Each structure stands twice: as C-alpha cells, then as structure tokens.
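hiii so my PI (J.) wants the whole complex modelled not just the main chain, which honestly fair. so below is everything: two entries, each one labled with what it is. i double checked the lines twice but i was tired so who knows lol
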Amino acid sequence: MLKLLKLPFWQTSQVSSHDAMLKFIQTQDASWLETLVHQHQNSLYKFIVQQSNPDLAADICQQAWLKLIEKQYLYSAEHEFKPWLYTIARNLLLDEFRRQNKLILTGDEAIQQADFIEVNNEELESVELGLYRQALSKLAFIHKESLLLQLQGFSLNQISEIVGEPQETVKSRIRYAKQTLKQILLTELNKVQ
Amino acid sequence: MKPTTHESKLNSKVDNSESDEQFEYALLRLQADNESQIKPDKNLTENIIRSVNYKVEQNNKKSVNWGSWLALSCALFIAVISVKMLQPEIKPNNSYIELSQLQVIPQQSKPEFIIKLEQDIAKNRAQVIALNQNLKEELARLDQTYLNRSDNLLYSRIAQVMQSKNENALVFCKNSQSFIYQPAAQNSRQVQVNWDKLSRQNQLVQVVFDKNGKIVALVAIEPTENTVTCPV
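here's the output for the full assembly
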C-alpha cells in the first residue's frame, strides 16, 4: 500500500486500467503495474482458483503478470485491459492443464476439467453454498469459465474475446452451464430435504 | 374453473420466467458468497508486485544495455563515415574520356593524375623554364634544319602510364624528348582511354606539351618488342 503512495493521487484514483497499462508501456515505470496488480489481482485469482486449486492459481497469476510484461508490445489502444489480462491467464491455465494431461478433449464440447477444486465442507458456512460449490465443480471447463466470467461482470463480447469463441457459442455455453447448475442444485437440494 | 391449455402454457411460461429470475438471483448471491470466501495467500499480491518490479527492472537494464550498444555502434558508424569523408576524394581514373591527338584536353575531362602533374609543373617553375629552354634550343636547332617551321612543332616526351601508390601516374622516360609536327597529327582519330587498363599494361605514351608546358594530348605508342618499356 505504501508503494501506491509513490504515485500522484490522480494516477491511482482516476486513471483507468487501460490508461495505466498504456502509461506503463510508455514509461516502463513499474508503479503503474503495481496499481494494476492491486486493482485486478484478487478477481483474477478468484476466477482461476475456481477452475484449479490455490497453489496452481497463485502460480498462474504470478506467471500472468510476468507474461503481461513480456507481451506488452501486443497491447494497443483498441484493447481492454481486464479481458486482455484474463486471456493471458486463461491461456496459461490451459497450457498447464495440457502439460498435466488434465484436459480431455471431447469434440465440440472440447474441454473437460479433470481436476476440480477441492471442497472443504468444514469451511462452508451453509449447506446451500456447499452444494453450489459441488455443483459448480461438476461443470465442464468451457461452460464454467464462461459462466464465471459472466458472474464477474464481463459482457458477452468480452467473454467471447477471452475464450476466443463467437458470442453465440459463449451465450449457449452460459445457458447450458446455468441449466446444468440448476438441475444439479435442485436434485441435491431434494436429496438434502 | 379449470384453465384452458393456452392459459396453462402461459402460466407455465410465467412460472418458468419467475423461476429463472429467482435462480439468476440465487446464482448471483451464491457466487458472491462463494467468492467472498476465497482468500488468496496474503503474500501473493506482494510476491507478484516484487516479481513484476524485478522483471521491469531487468527489462529496463536490458534496454539500457541495448541503448549503450546502439550508441556505441552509432558512434563507430559515424567515425567510419567521418574518416571516409575526410579522406581526399579520389576521382575515378578509369573513366573513359575522349582524347584527340594534338587537341587541348578539356579541363574537366582530365584525369586526376594529369591535373596533379600539371600542378607540379606549374609549381616548379624551374622545370617549366627548363622545358621551355630545352624546347627553345631544340626549336632553334630545328630552325636550321630542313623543317624550318618551328611554329608547327610541339614538344613531347615519352612516358609510361603506371600504377604508383594505387594511383595512375605518368613516369617520363629519360632522354625521350622529341617534336611532333602539329598539322600532321591533327586528323588523328579520337580514342577512348581506359587509364586503369593502360597502367596495368604499363602503356607507353607520347606526352605532348604546348609552348607553355601544358599537356595537350597523349598519344598511345603501339607496343613493340622495343617499346614495351621506356626506350633506353
């Protein structure tokens, strides 16, 4: 937090992420990146960890920020910062899954995640939340990632950019994810009741 | 009263839509709760910032290194160019020029080495005077001979076109003074001269001067067994 103070107040409070990234590219001043890390690291971690595990998510996040420095020359005025960061992180995650052979390719529905986030029921505050986590973990990777992105507030267009698929495909993936989630949750709730 | 099929469908649609809305709401709430419970390692952000700072620093160092190498290369390049530019300009001697025997060579067509030679002669007045004196004596002698037409005679010497210090040069042969009868040579054909080729062959030429000691023409001498080198 102290490091943030190195920047004039308008840099941290008024500059958009996109502008901060452009400033970093122009000046190579790491304090701009620090601002971006503070702004986006938590949500990025939450997105990644729900598709992997805490250790891998931490590793992927770290790699993503370093990759962002490496690939800064690809970033231009037309880009949006957050989707760009997520695209980098997602690609790293997929690379890692491929390296660990944790992806099963099944035709159009391409990617299934074989390793789900561990659910520790003791930590759960409610049965409902526990069931939700279990249901989420049963979704296919491609359905879950689109749903999580939407729930994090990304637009269809942005999700389409991150996952590299047309908007229609993304829309149907999200619909499928919600339907599946609903079915699983209803079934599980009925069992509990 | 039992609802019609149409009414049932409508009711079911409304129910579904209400159910969807409820589910969407529940989903948002559950996901918010879920994410609020996800706590990354406290040190993760700090570690990332440290890595990012280190990487940027390394990149900046690299670019400084590149910058210094670039500056060094530019300085070297400029130095080489400067040295090249400071060197005296060497006019190509192998350009073909039109030469007509006993015709004044236009100044701009003269190769560098001939201009230098003329400059040397101009500097060395004694040589010019000697040449002229020699010329006068010869003319005086010739005045007594059958020619008796000294006005039409031009002083000449035989020389070899040779390479000297990577430049073409005229090396005069000793005791090779002679006179050329001007009108007799005036109809000679023009030739193209490749000075490099001539110097490679050590070509013998007759250098013709006007009365002021200025070179007015070069007449190539066909090499024979006796005239490959300066005549002794």
